[in-house]
Amino acid sequence: MTVGNSTPTSAAFLSTLKRDLLIAYRRKNDVVNPFMFFFIVVSLFPIAISPDADKLGEIAAGVLWIAALLAGMLSMDSLFRADYEDGSLEQLLLSPHPLYFMVLAKNISHWLVSGLPVVLVSPVLAYMLNLPAESYMTLFLTLLLGTPVLSLLGSIGVALTVGLGSRGLILAVITLPMNVPVLITGTLAVQQTLNGATLAFYLAILGAMLLASIALAPLASAAALRISVN
Amino acid sequence: MWLWFSKLGSPKWFYELSGRWLPWLVAAMFAFLFVGVVWALLFVPQDYQQGLTNRIFYVHVPVASISLAFFPLMAIAGTITLVWKMKLADIVVKTAAPLGAWFTAFALASGSIWGIDTWGTWWIWDGRLTSLLFQFFLLIGVVSLRSALEDSDAAAKACALLSIVGCINVVVIKYSVDWWNTLHQPGTDFVLSSNKANGPDIWVPLVLMIGAVYLFFAVSMIMSTRNEILERERRSQWVEELVDNL
Amino acid sequence: MLNAIQFSSFSEFLNMGGYAFNVWSVYGLFTIFLGANLLVPMFKKKQILKDLKRRRVVNKNARPEINE
Q: Given its phi and psi angles, is residue A4 left (phi above 0), alpha (psi -120 to 50 degrees) or beta?
């Protein structure tokens, strides 16, 4: 847009990241709510299924993965919403920097705020659900690599529906099925390493998914934002 | 070539051409359907493993195989919508999504009814069933995105993009579900393999039924595409003339 | 290539070797599936044309100088 704009893209990337983190810090609900949601959903499973330690241990990995997935998805709603409403999203679209990096910065800050706390607390909840102790590391590492993929994929759905008034359910219908491959890899890693498979194999697959979604998902989200905001 | 391409994108041209083809396609569809169904139900010998449930094979397989074509079709039409903004391509994305959901739902339903006796259960989390189920969810996602976005231009682009993303996703889901499945349970491929080595009295009716279902797909797509064209072009002169001549 | 008819009576045909429920429910669903996706667009077309015709007539009567 502006001729002679001298801000390099890297600086714009960092300032978007910083700005989003600062906003999240000021509005502590955005940080606390996904985390509490994760905690509560996980706590409901022993009540609904059984407090029996063996049964819980069997489903623990799946429960934690699904709870992390839902917590991430629910918090996605705020990814572009506030910016869309106050008009700063339009500013972002008009900026001379590639939208790809701006979307990526927003994704990273969203993950740092809502994904990382969930990953960090997962060993504690894994203990409460009686996951076998040798799986803690597997679960932690797969969540660490997998939850950013969930955020990146989810942001495509969020970008497509950002202009809609009520979109809670449509967002779920669009994005939840996309997460199947990540969910499969994450839960299989926990089950199969218990049977003697090597963890590195699953981490490599999740790593590949992460790299592919870093490369492609922000492109799709950026295109979706341009469609939605017009 | 370019003239042909731009002509193809013109709704009026398509409406007139498809109007001439439609009766022939409908006639061919009913002919294939009649011969195929009668042959499959009455004349095909029973399978040594499945007995007469092999009749289900003749409707399940054509529908299931065509249901896999919907996302690629929508992704191609979606790309054309985004790149060349061709009106007709968006209409294809719009009409294909619900029809694809129908195809997928029927493939799932007929597959599970078939499974009652061949697998001994209505539903198993088999690779093919599971990935088809998620394809159904993704198609419903495209349909509901379309109905949620009222603005037609934004809806067209958004659904085009979602179709492309969904197409990639269906492929990844397919492979990951197969992989997941092989680690959880032994493969369930015996159903198809028992039909492979058979003679023409088994596969000729299958080919007829595949032809019939393809024709049905074409007829249904063309009919809803024509309806959509009439609605979108209602203010254009040719539609007004068409209405006047009724 | 063409075998003889596999059934000796109509009731045997209906029975489908004990799989009557499976076979006939699938063919029933198939009929619904085909019927719905052929009849719904057909009726919709009639509806659209009727609607357009009605609007056209209303428009013509309201502003005859524009159309004729």
A: left
**B215 lies in which domain range?**
21-42+52-231
pLDDT tens digits for A121-160? 999 998 888 888 888 888 999 999 999 999 999 999 999 8
Q: How many C-alpha atoms does A214 have within 13 Å on its Cβ side? A: 13
Rounded Cα distance, A186 and A129, in Å? 17
Residue C38, pLDDT > 80, answer yes
If you ran DSSP here, which 8-state letter would residue A179 be given?
G
What helix, strand, coil percent values describe chain C, rounded to 5?
80, 0, 20
Which pTM was predicted?
A: 0.86
**Residue B234 has which token pair?**
């209602």
Which residue in the block uniquely carries the two structure tokens 């409460």? A128
In a domain, C4, yes or no: no
Q: Which token pair is A144?
A: 């660490």
User: What SS3 class is residue B47?
Assistant: strand
Give the residue numbers spanning the domain of C34. Answer: 10-67
CA distance A214 to A16: 17
Q: How many structural domains is chain C composed of? A: 1
**Residues in chain B whose Cβ is within 8 Å of chain C:** 33, 37, 39, 41-46, 51-53, 55-56, 59-60, 63, 99, 102, 106, 109-110, 113-114, 116-117, 199-201, 204, 216, 219-220, 223-224, 226-227, 230-231, 234, 239-240, 243-244, 246
Q: Is the distance from CB of A16 to CB of A106 less than 8 angstroms?
A: yes
Residue B6 lies in a domain: no
In a 3-state reduction of DSSP, which class is residue A92? Answer: helix
